[in-house]
Design goal:
The structure holds two protein chains of two kinds. Chain A is α/β, with parallel strands linked by helices. Chain A is 40% helix and 18% strand. In chain B, helix 3 packs across helix 4 and helix 5 packs antiparallel against helix 6. Classes of the chains: A alpha/beta, B alpha/beta. At the A-B interface, strand 1, strand 8 and helix 10 of A face helix 1 and strand 2 of B.
Chain lengths: 396, 191
């Protein structure tokens, strides 16, 4: 019973801005930064045109954007912001405060490389660095997914079993500025789906006064962090429940990750976001030649669906994990090392290698991903991985 | 995916290649196609060589990289031929469409490669119909003659709607653009 949807050709930023308009949060506090800027720009237009009731707070920095969003959320408002790259970096200490206070803030993050050297293009160094901030992280392949994730994130973050802030990430310029087909749900359907925000505890509720942000010493700090970790565990189930409900209104199905032609796949590429779309085209080309290849596209990185990913990859013989950010651990990208760790207890482990790719907006083409599948073929024939972790398309 | 048409635009910053790739995407979407339209974001200086891209097809498009092997290359500024290898990656049966007063044979000689060339004087057409040298819309008209992405009249209808919205109903501009597209559709030469 999917609804009548409006088909449009629009950028990822415009699609996300429309999701926010339909959610119509009480407060948005934001500071513009490339490539997120359009989201805030479109939204301020919606405010000026009277299409939303949101109190829009224009602040002087991203530190203030997150601080104001935290203040509004603690006061009892549904509060949001959006950022990229250096903006996310400047929010850093406040990110931990949002999650530590258990404030269900939703924040679109348009992924962009961190300086230096300065670069405005896509990679995941901004949000990969934020994996330990206590935020849920959901990644989008396309403008459509960025729109859908933003709407679902409200329900996930605000679920009483979760109460954690949530980042919804999409690729800077590639997704944020590229025009493609997007189906928008009717406004009232989105409003009905996200519902009215009714926090159980909030500062402005004078009949049930609470304290937010007190000093917590060694006697309780551990318990609070334990509860946060438990909430993150609970989020996995909530994300699936929300996805199921969302499929009913949209016809679009989401999970913790997407399995593409994985049924009998021996060689598998694991990659997030827009590059996963390009990998699908490569899988199609190779499948047409009868090759047993597949793609696994993680959607949710926090909580990390370790057991589910291991189960999904149990039939694979050789796996390449592609990370769009360096960790400088010298052991490979974040997704690669986490997925390898997840396989530690698995009865059967595939050959596994890691790639760091697409840094600072380096275009990742069908040809490059084709090379990755070729490397996996070599590994399979050899029975061992030729190189544990390498940089794709690099001049040395 | 054999129906997928991949297009690369060559222009100079300020000539409207980004706008044209966006308009082409929007109009093709309105006519029922799956589309992509995006520029290569670099230092966007007025006059500097820039690229923009389109993919248009009957099935959802998941590739998210630049177009490497275009079916059609559109050159808005003929002075780019030489400094830029506009035929790079062009498919064997692909078409190079150039905004120029020269004939396809003359352009082919300049390039020194055996590629299919089409030419249209989109600048002259836009000066005559819109009153300004903005060759991007007539180039779209010529494109529609060369590749059967969409029925031309249907495409014009959706472009008219899109432009009417963009120019807030200033119909002289809208009609000028439509006339430019019609003329380019008629006048494009293939060699």
């Amino acid at each position: 019973m999917a609804n009548e949807q409006r088909l449009a050709a629009m950028t990822g930023n415009e699609a996300v801005a429309h999701a926010l308009r339909q959610i119509d949060p009480d407060v948005i506090a934001a500071y513009p930064i490339t490539p997120q800027t359009d989201i805030v720009q479109y939204y301020s237009q919606f405010v000026s045109d009277g299409l939303v009731k949101t109190e829009m707070v224009t602040v002087e920095s991203e530190h203030s954007a997150m601080s104001a969003t935290i203040g509004a959320s603690a006061a009892g408002a549904r509060a949001m912001t959006a950022t990229s790259s250096q903006g996310l970096a400047l929010m850093w200490e406040m990110l931990h405060i949002a999650s530590g206070y258990r404030l269900p803030i939703v924040m679109p993050v348009v992924n962009r490389a961190l300086s230096g050297p300065i670069n405005i293009h896509c990679d995941h160094s901004d949000t990969m660095g934020a994996l330990t901030t206590g935020w849920i992280q959901i990644y989008a392949e396309s403008a459509q997914e960025a729109y859908d994730n933003a709407i679902q994130a409200v329900r996930i973050a605000e679920d009483p079993r979760v109460l954690l802030p949530t980042m919804v990430c999409d690729d800077g310029f590639i997704t944020s500025h590229g025009i493609e087909n997007v189906s928008l749900l009717p406004d009232e359907v989105v409003k009905g789906f996200v519902g009215e925000y009714k926090p159980s505890k909030f500062l402005l509720n004078i009949s049930d006064p609470v304290t937010v942000g007190p000093l917590v010493l060694p006697d309780y700090y551990t318990e609070l962090k334990f509860q946060q970790a438990e909430a993150m565990k609970a989020a996995k189930q909530v994300i699936l429940e929300v996805a199921e409900e969302y499929a009913k209104i949209s016809g679009r199905k989401y999970g913790l990750f997407e399995e593409y032609k994985m049924d009998d796949a021996e060689r598998v590429v694991v990659v997030l976001s827009s590059a996963a779309g390009t990998a699908k085209a490569v899988v199609n080309q190779l499948r047409a030649k009868g090759e047993k290849v597949g793609l696994l596209k993680p959607r949710v990185l926090r909580p990390f669906p370790a057991e589910e990913l291991v189960a999904a990859l149990s039939g694979a013989k050789a796996v390449a994990v592609m990370d769009r950010a360096e960790t400088f651990s010298t052991q490979g990208g974040q997704l690669f090392t986490e997925l390898r760790a997840a396989f530690y207890d698995a009865p059967k482990r595939p050959l596994m290698r890691g790639y760091v790719f697409g840094l600072g907006g380096r275009d990742t083409t069908v040809r490059e991903i084709g090379k990755v599948f070729e490397d996996l073929r070599g590994d399979l024939e050899r029975g061992s991985v030729s190189e544990k972790y390498t940089h794709l398309d690099v001049r040395v | 995916m054999s129906d997928l048409v991949e297009i690369r635009w060559h222009a100079r910053g300020g000539q409207g290649a980004k706008t044209a790739s966006a308009l082409l995407a929007e109009s093709a979407m309105s006519a029922g196609k799956f589309v992509q339209g995006f520029p290569e974001y670099g230092p966007e200086r007025m006059g500097a060589p820039i690229l923009a891209f389109n993919r248009i097809g009957d099935e959802p498009i998941t590739i998210h990289s630049n177009v490497e092997e275009p079916d059609v290359v559109m050159v808005l500024d003929p002075t780019l031929i030489g400094p830029v290898d506009v035929t790079e990656g062009l498919k064997d049966n692909g078409i190079l469409l150039v905004n120029t007063s020269q004939s396809p044979a003359e352009v082919k000689q300049k390039i020194g490669k055996d590629v299919k060339v089409a030419t249209v004087d989109a600048s002259a057409i836009s000066l005559a119909t819109i009153g300004r040298d903005i060759p991007n819309t007539p180039m779209m008209g010529a494109l529609l003659k060369l590749v059967s992405i969409l029925p031309f009249e249907k495409f014009l209808e959706t472009v008219k709607e899109d432009l009417t919205r963009k120019f807030h109903g200033r119909m002289n501009i809208v009609e000028g653009n439509l006339m430019a597209m019609r003329r380019a559709y008629e006048e494009v030469q293939v060699g």
